Amino acid sequence: MYFTKQLKRIFNEPTLFITLLAVWLLLGVFVIYPIVMVAITSLKDYSGHFSWNTYKMLFTKVYFRRPLINSLKLGATVASIGTVVGFIFAFAITRVNIPGKKIFTTVATFPIVSPPFVIALAAILLFGRNGVITHDILKDSLKIDIYGFGGLSLVETLAYFPTAFLSLEGILRSINPALEEASLSMGYSKWRTFWKVTFPLSMPGIFSAWLLVFAQSMADFGNPMIISGNYQVLSVAAYLEITGSFNLSTGSGLAILLLVPTIVAFTLQKYWLSKKSYVTVTGKPSSMSILEPKKSVKALFTVILLIFTATILMFYGTVFYGSFTKLWGVNHTLSLENYKFVFDVGLEYIKDTIILAAIATPISGILGMLIAYLVARKEFPGRRFTEATSLLTFAIPGTVVGIGYLLSFNNKPFVLTGTAAIIILIFIFRNLPVGVQNGVAALEQIDKSIEEASLDMGASSATTFWKVTLPLITPAFFSGLFFTFVKSMTAISAVIFVVSGSWNLVTVAILGSVENSDLAQAAAYSYVLIFIVIIMMFLLRMLTYRFSYERKIAR
């Protein structure tokens, strides 16, 4: 009965019906179809017949089994260390009155808005065979092998602990300090209050952060490609099978093995934790202040944050310095030659990257807001499935997406390989989940009666969306635009499979420079990319303020 009512409601609104069909078609072709193609290809033998031989080989041969074990080991290590560091940062920012909180927060988010392998590049510049620390300072007296599990753990922890920090900061801010005050009034010490009150209430955030960092580590391609050495991981192994050996079935099988743990982690983080209730914000006013720990504890937190902040600044500072050297490891004379090269030979890479990202960004942003509006405001059959599908690419590693697009759009009826369209489509649907999540979160804060009033006055659903809803969720819209642009500018894992000579990307140029051992040139490319991202960040912030509903009210 309820299902029938939903169908009648959809058919009574032709615009809504056509929009739903268009969204389902787009999600089906550009999200579900590529994944299905990867799965199908992994189940074919060399003659094209159905076979389980690929998976038998992956699980029986040590050469193929090792990348899975290595990836799981690395992911668990990075997730555990990154979550601990993220929690320390979040607790210090929200619960300890330390100086320089804004500086610590800003520096901690550097890895989020920079190219994915800048930290790996910095690790080579610092600890490589011709590194500042290993060669120039220690004079090769101490053997430090940055390539492998240890180096990857360090690099990925620095790259992904900000994810845990941002997630846990929100959780800790939502815990009412009155609960901690009540614990103290009952005679518990501050230490016992932390373990009995604060920490248990933080558990959903801690587990969620662990799963997010684990999934990011599993999906990472850029850092392992540069610094993994002989430590094989699934993302790089799948890439080498596809591009090196042109073994589509084995590469697809490795991609599926990479897909399974990340999907499980995403599902647990998204749906299982959402059903757990740890609500401490009741809407009732509270004048309690955040509890201040002892001076010794405050000093300890300050020192820890200083160490990690200094480490991040050292890594980024080394890359900045390296970008001005003539040839890293051979000639450290300061020069602008690398930047001249980037803006001369590499100018096409920069132009192509900006053009493709600029085209994909507004399309992804508008489509994300549209899907968010549908799943948050409309009742229709398959609503939850639509939302889950739109968020799917957030859980899928870029390597799987890239292989999926390579397999799906290399033959009729969709021949897109070698064109700008396939790169743009990857940018759009790879970053779509952020726009959807931002839109849903913003819509949940807007009273439905505002939109109902528009509908009661005779406006259609389309008019209501464009004239009422979209202006109210403008901040979320621009936030999604910024994320999409940044991730498009710094993408590597998915697009590495579909780039061609016609369209070049800065990240591919960086990877090529590293493979050619021209680290100074790679550093220059990296900082040009960071500079472009910073400019875009300020522009979008200005646009967000200019078109925000609050500013219109103020005027």
Name the features.
4 strands, about 550 residues, about 0% strand, mainly alpha, two-stranded antiparallel sheet, single chain, about 75% helix
What does the main sheet amount to? 2 strands, antiparallel
Helix percent reads over 70%
Average pLDDT for all residues: 83
Number of strands: 4
SS-derived structural category: mainly alpha
Provide the spatial order of strands within the biggest beta sheet. Answer: 1-2
What portion of the residues fall into strands of 2 or more residues?
Answer: under 5%
Indicate the low-confidence ranges by residue numbers: 277-289
Secondary structure tally, helices: 28
End-to-end separation in angstroms reads 48 Å
Radius of gyration: 25 Å
Described by the principal axes of the CA atoms, the overall outline is: globular
Explain the layout of strands and helices.
Layout: H1 2-11, H2 14-42, H3 53-60, H4 62-95, H5 101-108, H6 110-113, H7 118-127, H8 132-137, H9 149-174, H10 177-185, H11 190-219, H12 222-227, H13 234-243, H14 248-272, H15 295-322, E1 325-327, E2 331-334, H16 337-344, H17 347-377, H18 383-390, H19 392-395, H20 398-408, E3 410-411, E4 414-415, H21 420-430, H22 432-443, H23 448-456, H24 461-472, H25 474-489, H26 506-515, H27 519-546, H28 549-554
Antiparallel strand pairs: 1-2, 3-4
Helix pairs in contact: 2-14, 2-20, 3-4, 4-9, 4-11, 4-14, 7-15, 9-11, 10-11, 11-14, 13-14, 14-20, 15-27, 16-27, 17-18, 17-21, 17-22, 17-25, 22-25, 23-24, 25-27, 26-27
